[in-house]
Each structure stands twice: as structure tokens, then as C-alpha cells.
Design brief:
This protein has about 180 residues and is an all-alpha fold. About 85% of the residues lie in helices and about 0% in strands. The chain has seven helices and no strands. Helix 1 packs parallel to helix 3 and helix 2 packs parallel to helix 4. The chain is flat.
Length: about 180
């Protein structure tokens, strides 16, 4: 009776770990917007804080890629609060999992990120040679998106610097005349 109870307990733990890994994988893939990214990172931290160390070790390969991308971003795609949350979650996971297991998973995640980047760059290079029209179309679309983004930023800066634009007043200023 006790062996079946222990087996059932192990099964429940494995199912729980599987479900948590699935949720973390799905959330990690959808961390594009700042609000959802910050919420996902906080959830990763909460899960890591409440799981036992063996479960944290099992969760590391799933969570580390998203956390490393968010913590080490130099491109400006990740906002500062999300970078801070990611760094604190990484520190928490390192404490919970232990240094040796964490460093092994960290190295694997770094290697996976580098491999993915290399594959992406190789695919783009091959695409530029084999599908010239498609590559040109993508390059034009990218330039167009950059141009509209720049225009939008410049319009926002103009509106912010000009109080007249913010108030909605337009036209020339009236000439001041001094009467004695």
C-alpha cells in the first residue's frame, strides 16, 4: 500500500514538473512585449523559488534561454526593468540549483543561443544567394519599417518639444505691439 502511494507521489511530481516545463516553454517563446516579458520572468522566479532543487535543475534548460536573452541584451530590445528581473531570477536559480548544475545548464543554454544565431545567419546568407527576389523584398520591407519607425519617433519628439503642438494650437504667433 505504501509503495503504490510513493509511486503515485512520484508520478504526480513528474506530471507537475512536465506541466511547469510546458508552461515555461510556451511563455519563453512569447516574451516579446515588455509587460508579458516581465510577467513571465517573475513567474519563472516564483516557480524557481518554490520548487525543490532537483525540479529546479530539470527546469533550467527550458528557462535559461529566455532569461539569458533578457538579462544579457545589448541591442535595446529588452527594457531595463526586465533585464534587472531576469538577472535576479538567474541569481535565484543559481542558488537553488547549485553551482555545478547551474553552470552546466548555463553553458548548454549559451551554446544553444550561439548555434541558433549561426543557423539563422547561415540561412539568411543562403537565402540571399538562392532567392534574390525574396531577399530584396525582405530588405526593402525592413528599410521601410525602419523609416516609418524613425518618422514616428521624430514626430513624437517634435510634439514633446513643442508645447504649441501638444496644446493643439497652430499657426503663427501674433505680433506683439507695445502701446504707451
Amino acid at each position: 500500500l505504501s509503495s503504490s502511494s510513493a509511486a503515485s507521489d512520484v508520478y504526480k511530481r513528474q506530471a507537475c514538473c512536465w506541466a511547469i516545463r510546458l508552461v515555461c516553454r510556451r511563455l519563453g517563446a512569447r516574451c516579446r512585449e515588455p509587460a508579458s516579458r516581465a510577467a513571465s520572468l517573475r513567474l519563472f522566479g516564483a516557480i524557481g523559488a518554490h520548487l525543490p532543487p532537483p525540479a529546479v535543475v530539470a527546469l533550467l534548460p527550458v528557462v535559461l534561454r529566455t532569461l539569458l536573452f533578457s538579462a544579457d541584451d545589448q541591442s535595446g530590445k529588452v527594457d531595463a526593468p526586465s533585464r534587472e528581473v531576469a538577472a535576479s531570477v538567474l541569481q535565484l536559480l543559481q542558488e537553488r540549483a547549485g553551482d555545478e548544475e547551474y553552470l552546466r545548464a548555463y553553458a548548454d543554454a549559451r551554446h544553444a543561443l550561439a548555434d541558433a544565431r549561426q543557423r539563422r545567419l547561415a540561412r539568411i546568407a543562403v537565402e540571399a544567394v538562392t532567392d534574390v527576389i525574396g531577399a530584396a523584398r525582405r530588405k526593402i520591407d525592413k528599410h521601410k519599417a525602419k523609416r516609418t519607425s524613425h518618422k514616428r519617433k521624430m514626430d513624437a519628439a517634435k510634439m514633446q518639444s513643442s508645447t504649441r503642438g501638444v496644446l493643439g494650437v497652430s499657426g503663427k504667433k501674433k505680433r506683439r505691439t507695445f502701446h504707451e
